[in-house]
């Protein structure tokens, strides 16, 4: 069964199975997923599930709903999608569609005998960080975990989350409200998708982000 994983500042709070056709999200107590935060509208969003497909709907919320950092009003969810509502996040964990039966495969071949063979799957990519300054300059870190925390408590702490083949940088805490930077620009409070060649600065440490084949 598909589910939503609720978290706040990188800490998992609760799992919510999508066990009915419509699951509502909001600040009001009668929502299926109640988030008690002023940045969340009383009726903020909903997830509608039909068989193996789930769709996220923004219900006209005041502050909007983001998926992977992008504002949406309606979005077909894919496993690993990262939903931001106020200061909380929900990760969608879906189910893969069942494989076609042998009969269905035979029908497909009979109907489309000249269909080209599928292209080979792209090589899986793994993230790396290379330290550019300080006593650890030149050191590399492999981002193989689902989440890697970086920084220094009391100064600035951030996390890099791995979602399938994508990596996202998220601010956790910092002095004077400053957030980590990517290519010299502060990321703010929303997760920032990283690209090969990005330069990060976290707690005064500069790091180069790279993607390499596993």
Automatic annotation (TrEMBL):
It comes from the Bacteria. The lineage of its organism: Bacteria, Pseudomonadati, Pseudomonadota, Gammaproteobacteria, Cellvibrionales. PROSITE patterns: FHA_DOMAIN. InterPro entries: Cell_Proc_Reg/RNA_Proc, FHA_dom, SMAD_FHA_dom_sf. Residues 23-72 form the FHA domain. CDD domains: FHA. Pfam families: FHA (PF00498). Signal peptide: none annotated. It comes from Zhongshania antarctica. This is PSer/pThr/pTyr-binding forkhead associated (FHA) protein. SMART domains: FHA.
